[in-house]
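Comment on both lines for my students:
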Amino acid sequence: MSIAKLYRVKDLVNYPARAGNVYVDRSGRIRKLSSREASIGLLNISESMLWKLVKRGDFPAPTYITASMPTWSEHQINQWIESKNRAA
């Protein structure tokens, strides 16, 4: 029995680089925004585009492990990529 690989949103989409920043919020507290390097996901699309595709029905709906953790199986992703390659 093999365990299917599950992909989370962060594995599938691109994220731009973000510089770290220290700032003071409205209440006077000092906040630190951590830096993040750019990353390219498996699908090479933005997160907003992923959710647009899901909403339109052009991409498989996720399975939620928890209320805030959508995932897709490797099989779902591979099927979607193959269907895109056939259509092109």
Remarks:
- The CA atoms of residues 8 and 68 lie 11 Å apart.
